[in-house]
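Lecture 7 notes: from sequence to structure.

We start with a single chain of 526 residues. Read the sequence below before looking at the structure.
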Amino acid sequence: MGGGFDLRDEPWVPVRLASGESVRVGFRGLFTRAHEIEDLELPVAPAASGLMRILAAMTTRIAHHEDVGLDDEDTAEEIRQWYALRRAVLARGRFDRDAVDAYFDEQVPAGRFDLFDGERPFLQDPRLLKECVDGQGRPNASGVNKLVMGRPTGVNGAVLFGHFTDGDPVPVPAAEAVWHLIAQLYFGPSGQCTPRRITQTRAGSGDAGPLRKSISYFPWAPDLFTTLVLAVPRPGDHEPDEADACPWEEELPDPLGPCPALSWPRRVLTGRFRHAALLVPSADHTEVTDAYITWSTHETAHQARDPYLILDRRRDGGLQAREADTARALWRDVDALLLMDSAQDASRPRALDGLPDALRGRLRVRAYGFDQDGQQKDSGWFQATTPPVLQWQQETDPEMAAHVERCHRAAEDAGERMEFAAKVAWKLATDVNADASGKVKLDQRKPGPWAAAAVARYWPAAEREFWQLATPGQTSVWPQPPFVNAALAALDTAIGSANRADIRVARARSRARAIIRGLLQAPTAA
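Now the structure, written as tokens:
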């Protein structure tokens, strides 16, 4: 392995310019043109989620005002001073070209940004070539299909985005391989992996990536420069440290040694990987033909508050990251993005705290989610962006934040009540022993088809109602009736007009509609 794919200047990050043109840039072009870039266009959402953390870490090295950077330890000791520094950086409107070149050409050792560098390929461990071997000492690679998110591996791998087999692997372009390398490091699976022989023990299992099954939320500005500056996590959750560094800035870690402390700001963003990887290039270094993916450490991970995650309160009182769900629309999280941490059931992402008042009216929220289980199964990923809702955060507009929370709660209540009512209706319509006038005992293993059909119909309609209600002129409106009406319409559609002609179905439908209408009996709760 030599070099040949320098991520500083090779065009590998898809972006959309303010002019509407879609282009690809390297790290250098991304930072020098950030004020001209409107959006990232990475088609792999988990890669975009990880890349935003990498870019935020780089921003702390590049962004400065009067030679004071956003990672300055002394400034970080007083949050008001740090906010003032961030405002000064934002006022500049763009990254300084000399600072960008100094970081990529001088501050980081040569070769560290090359995807195929022989000594320190970007975000990879070249030791795997000798450590991932079989019993005869021959290289034991994981396969390129293991690298690419969405490709099946092994015999029972699920097919998400194409038909590939381990017997006939298809190389992946080098630019796209970077996306999947980043996604693997942040969202990779736990459990069995390619064995890595370091000691006499040939361990072949590892832990899940630090963001596995999560959804991340970033403040999103009209230009990428502002987005990246706002993505830098504020000081406070983790201590600054002189040794704080990104993986490409320091020496390879000891896989058998303790994990470094998660210092602010770079290690908390880029220092939590549980996987190690090494890409094998084609002869011309334009493609990746094979890959090694294995564990990077078995040491206990340090606890970290990721700045881009919503934390939900568990029944035991602890907090856990809100999990990504492809069936859950982003608007259902808006209230958790607006309310302060005094909310009893959720804590909003730290990256949404302390936003500049002058920008709030233009800031949206970008979400990147990967619906996975905790081990090996990947269901799907998604990306979504809200309208400019951050102007309604509780500390700025408490009335509107409370109204949005009421609207969301009304929608959730109607949805839950409708799903229950649809199950009751199915039970009454199909069980001759069920009493339409009495208590109905449901069998959760046999919910019937009406509940799922009603849910699928309800939530898109509820979203339309939510955005109509979530306006400053509607704060005095009781939000429950529109969602109840949407639930009733979804229930009727699920049951179907032909079915309702049956007397048992008609009685069941009447009972179900009464259950849903019960939400309208307490208008004082608005």
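Residues 398-430 form the longest helix (33 residues). Keep this in mind for problem set 3.
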